[in-house]
Amino acid sequence: MFMVAGSFLVSIVATLGVIAFNLMRLSLKEQVGEKPIAKSGGIAFMIPFIAAWIYIQGFGIGAICMILAVIFGAISDFKDLKIGWYFISTIILGIMIIAGGYTLAITNIGLINILLTLVIWSLLLWGVHKINDLDGQVVGVGVLISVGVYLIQGNMDYLALILGTSLLGFLIFNMYPTRAYVGASGCYGLSMALMLIVSEEIKILEGGISGYYPLVLFSIIILDGIIGGILLIERGFENWSVPESYICTVFLNNYYLNQRVVVLIYYGIVAVTVAFSVAYIYANWIVQMLILATILAFGFTMIWYIFKEKASFQS
C-alpha cells in the first residue's frame, strides 16, 4: 500500500507546486479574490499515476498514451484552439489505444470491438470535458469510478486504487472554491487512464453481455456527453470547449440549488451507476439485462427532460 499512500501525497505536493508556480494561471479577472488559480492543475494528479503505471506495467504504449494525452490537453490549455484540434487529437489517441492492444473486449468480433472502442473513447473524452463544469465534479466522479473498478478485484485493481488516491489528493484543492482547475490536460489524462484500466479489467470477463460493463460504468459521463454533443450541433459548434454538465444545469437552474449540493447529487447519481457496474459483473444475465434497461430508461428520461426544458438553461 506504499504506492497508494505515496500517490496521494505526491498529488498534494504536485498540486501545491502547480498553484505556487501559477502554472498557466488564469487572468486576474478570472481569479477568486487575490488567490491565483492554476488552469491546468490536472497535470498534478496525472504525475503520480503515470509514475505508478510505469513502475508496475513498464514504459510501454499505455504510458505513452497517457503522456501524449496530457500533452494534447496542455496544448489546449495554452491555446484557444478550434474544434478540429479536438477531433484530430481524439482520433490520434483512439488509434494509439487500438494499436497498443487496449481494445475493449465487448464482443467476440474483433472489428466490432475496435469500432465500439473508438466510439466509447470518443464519448468518454467528450463527456469528461463536459462534466468538468462545477468545482470538484469531474475529479470526484473519477474517484468513484476508480473505487468501482477496484471492487471488482480484477487485473487493474491496484492501479485503480492508485488513480483514486491521486485524484483525492487533487480534490482537496479542487472543491469549491477551487484553487486548481482540472483543465484540458486533466480531462485528457483522466479519460485515457480510465480507458486503459477498464480495457484491461474486462479481459477477465467471460464474454456475453458481461462485456457491456464499460457502458454501465461510464453511463452518466457518456449520457452528459451525448446530450452535449447534440446541443453543440444545434448551436453550430459555438463555444465547444466550454464545460457544461447538462444534468447539473437542470438542478442549478430549475431547482436553484447551490453548487456544492448539485455536485453531491451528481456524485450520488454516479455512485448508483458504479454500484450497478459492480453488481453487473457478478449477476446472472437476467439481472444484467435489468441493469442495462434501468440505465437506458434513465438516460432516455434525462434526454427527454433536458430537451423539453432546454429553453430555460441554454446559454
Strand and helix map with partners:
Layout: H1 2-20, H2 43-57, H3 61-78, H4 83-99, H5 110-130, H6 137-152, H7 157-174, H8 183-201, H9 213-217, H10 219-234, H11 246-254, H12 259-282, H13 285-309
Helix pairs in contact: 1-2, 1-7, 2-3, 2-7, 2-8, 3-4, 3-8, 4-5, 5-8, 5-10, 6-7, 6-8, 6-12, 7-8, 10-13, 11-12, 12-13
Briefly, what is this?
This protein is mainly α and 315 residues long. The protein has helices at 2-20, 43-57, 61-78, 83-99, 110-130, 137-152, 157-174, 183-201, 213-217, 219-234, 246-254, 259-282, 285-309. The protein has 13 helices and no strands.
Overview of this protein structure:
It is a single chain. With 315 residues, the chain is mainly alpha-helical. It has one domain (2-312). The protein has 13 helices and no strands. The chain has helices at residues 2-20, 43-57, 61-78, 83-99, 110-130, 137-152, 157-174, 183-201, 213-217, 219-234, 246-254, 259-282, 285-309. Helix 1 packs antiparallel against helix 2 (43-57), helix 4 packs across helix 5 and helix 7 packs antiparallel against helix 8 (183-201). The protein is globular, with a radius of gyration of 19 Å. The chain starts with a helix and ends in a 6-residue tail after the last helix. Mean pLDDT is 82; it is low at 26-34.
